[in-house]
From TrEMBL:
<dbReference type="InterPro" id="IPR014731">
    <property type="entry name" value="ETF_asu_C"/>
</dbReference>
<protein>
    <submittedName>
        <fullName>Electron transfer flavoprotein subunit alpha</fullName>
    </submittedName>
</protein>
<feature type="binding site">
    <location>
        <position position="282"/>
    </location>
    <ligand>
        <name>FAD</name>
    </ligand>
</feature>
<dbReference type="InterPro" id="IPR014729">
    <property type="entry name" value="Rossmann-like_a/b/a_fold"/>
</dbReference>
<keyword id="KW-0249">Electron transport</keyword>
<comment type="similarity">
    <text>Belongs to the ETF alpha-subunit/FixB family.</text>
</comment>
<feature type="binding site">
    <location>
        <position position="205"/>
    </location>
    <ligand>
        <name>FAD</name>
    </ligand>
</feature>
<feature type="domain" description="Electron transfer flavoprotein alpha/beta-subunit N-terminal">
    <location>
        <begin position="3"/>
        <end position="182"/>
    </location>
</feature>
<dbReference type="GO" id="GO:0050660">
    <property type="term" value="F:flavin adenine dinucleotide binding"/>
</dbReference>
<dbReference type="Pfam" id="PF00766">
    <property type="entry name" value="ETF_alpha"/>
</dbReference>
<keyword id="KW-0285">Flavoprotein</keyword>
<dbReference type="InterPro" id="IPR001308">
    <property type="entry name" value="ETF_a/FixB"/>
</dbReference>
<dbReference type="GO" id="GO:0009055">
    <property type="term" value="F:electron transfer activity"/>
</dbReference>
<feature type="binding site">
    <location>
        <begin position="261"/>
        <end position="268"/>
    </location>
    <ligand>
        <name>FAD</name>
    </ligand>
</feature>
<keyword id="KW-0813">Transport</keyword>
<keyword id="KW-0274">FAD</keyword>
<dbReference type="Pfam" id="PF01012">
    <property type="entry name" value="ETF"/>
</dbReference>
Length: 315
């Protein structure tokens, strides 16, 4: 089966979620990866470690900004050029906007939030996460072409492949596709952006006030993490609104989510249940968050965090 995997890059590096998508595709068939915009050949060749046999590169500089229409056009063109039956990508805010357009252009069926390899014993059935991870739906796809967007952290990254060959792909992208362009970008506060962070240290009302956030920021700095918070914390202006995690805030999918002084209300959990590992620090051993935790520390945040931080720095 011929599989095209669209890989997102960030600051010249292939995103971890894209490597998960390549690993997913490699379990289905022969993977050609597709990269858009400026990325080094050396970096693209590393897609082979995750299972891509070849990488097609559309190096058009206009694609350095993630633009929905030209991206959809380029992905569909690459799918046609390679005769791919399955088009895979990682689910992301960009992919959410692009994959529907790709599916329409290709006459393909589409499933997003995919969490497992398809069951092909009777057709082509994929499992997707629904209701913010509280339930799953099995979806049967009957079209020849299929577009799958894979949920972050659902697939182990394969790392035992050899370097992939990298080839330039020329795609005609009409100026009319660039009707909306990004003129400049600016980073929000903090070194690591929350939605894409691999590690998040988040604080709740248990931190008592904004003046105590130093313990969260110190731990985040040591771990190279983004900082997050619960909704009441941002409602009270202890922290900026863009740090608010949960059903009504940012949904994160880090490898590690550290929740400090957060009770674990269902609306908060809805934003973090795609995390690979959850560590909860709370002084109340009955706090509901412990039920969702992989590891828990029952203790006062103001005693635990400095000790944890020192231990991690020494490690
Ligand atoms: P609390 O519930 O007050 O919990 C504080 C925790 O800190 C407690 O468990 C306590 O034991 C612990 N603690 C106290 N002192 C210490 C200490 N010294 N050391 C360690 N632990 C300590 N919430 C969100 O977060 N995100 C959302 O997106 C969201 N959306 C919502 C949408 C709706 C429609 C509604 C109704 C609510 C929503 N909420 C959301 C609010 C949610 O229901 C909870 O009220 C909120 O998550 C609680 O925040 P918290 O855990 O910080 O505070």
């Amino acid at each position: 089966m011929s599989v095209l995997v669209f890989i997102e890059t960030e600051e010249g590096k292939i995103k971890k979620s894209a490597r998960e998508a390549i690993s997913y595709g490699a379990a289905l068939g022969d993977v050609t990866a597709l990269a858009l915009g400026t990325v080094s050949q050396d970096e693209l060749a590393t897609a082979g470690e995750n299972g891509a046999s070849k990488v097609l590169h559309v190096s058009d500089e206009r694609l350095n900004a993630s633009l929905i229409q030209p991206y959809a056009e380029a992905i569909a063109a690459a799918a046609n050029a390679t005769g791919s039956e399955i088009i895979v990508t990682a689910k992301s805010s960009l992919a959410d906007a692009v994959v529907g357009r790709v599916a329409i252009k290709l006459g393909a069926s589409l499933v997003s939030n995919v969490v497992a390899l398809p069951d092909t014993s009777n057709g082509f059935q994929v499992k997707r996460s629904i209701y913010t991870g509280k339930a799953f739906a099995n979806v049967n796809l009957t079209t020849d072409k299929k577009v799958l967007a894979i949920k972050k952290n659902a697939i182990e990254v394969k790392t035992d492949g050899a370097a992939a060959s990298v080839e330039a792909l020329s795609v005609t992208l009409d100026d009319s596709l660039f009707g909306a362009t990004i003129t400049s970008t600016e980073k929000a506060e903090g070194d690591v952006l929350l939605p894409e962070a691999d590690i998040v240290v988040s604080g709740g009302r248990g931190l008592k006030g904004p003046e105590n956030w130093g313990v969260i920021e110190d731990l985040a700095k040591t771990l190279g993490a983004a900082t997050g918070c619960s909704k009441p914390v941002s409602d009270m202006d202890w922290r900026p609104h863009h740090e608010h995690v949960g059903q009504t805030g940012v949904k994160v999918s880090p490898t590690l989510y550290v929740a400090v002084g957060i009770s674990g209300a269902i609306q908060h959990l809805a934003g973090v249940n795609s995390s690979k590992y959850i560590v909860v620090i709370n002084k109340d051993e009955e706090a509901p968050f412990f039920k969702a935790a992989d590891y828990g520390i029952v203790g006062d945040a103001f005693e635990v965090l400095p000790k944890l931080n020192e231990a991690l720095k020494a490690a």
